[in-house]
Amino acid sequence: MHGLGDSGHGWAPVFRDIRGFLPHVKFIFPHASVQPVTLNGGMAMPSWYDIFTLDKINAKEDREGMLRTIAHVNELITEEIETSKLSSDRIVVAGFSQGAAMALLTGLTSERKLAGMV
Q1: Could you write out the DSSP letters of every residue in the chain?
Q2: Residue 58's pLDDT band (boundaries 50, 70, 90)?
Q3: Best CA proximity match to 117, nearest among 52, 55, 73
Q4: Is residue 2 assigned to a domain?
Q5: Quick one: average pLDDT of 94-116?
Q6: Does residue 1 lie in a domain region?
Q7: CATH number of the domain to which 32 belongs
Q8: Mean per-residue pLDDT for 62-75?
Q9: What domain count does the chain have?
Q10: What is the mean pLDDT of residues 79-101?
Q11: N- or C-end of the chain: fewer Cβ atoms within 10 A?
C-alpha cells in the first residue's frame, strides 16, 4: 500500500524486476481514495486516512478513515481468496509510510490468519 499522495501505480515498477524471481507471487497495488488532508491545508490527494497534525503528543487520529481502509483491504483480501482459491495464510499485506501503518493495522486486526505484514 502506497504512502500519502501516491498511488498503487507508483510502486508497481519497483516490483517489476522482483517478479522474475518470484513468478508464483501475485502483487496487488491498491489505490487510496482522493480526499482532503487537513495537514496539507485541506488539499485533496490520495490518502488512506486524514492526517490532522504531526504533533505526536496531542495527536488526533482519523479513526473512522482508518477503519474504512481496513474494511476496504479486507474486502480485497476476501476477493483474492475467492478468485484465486488461496488460503489467507498465504497473503501478506505490505505498505510504505501511511500505507505501512494501514498494512500493520489491517494485519493486527484481521479476523483471518495472514502470512505476514511488511
Answers
A1: ---TT--HHHHHHHHHHHHTT-TTPPP----PPEEEEGGGTTEEEE-SS-B--S-SSS--B-HHHHHHHHHHHHHHHHHHHHHH---GGG-EE--STHHHHHHHHHHHH-SSPPSEE-
A2: confident
A3: 73
A4: no
A5: 97
A6: no
A7: 3.40.50.1820
A8: 98
A9: 1
A10: 96
A11: C
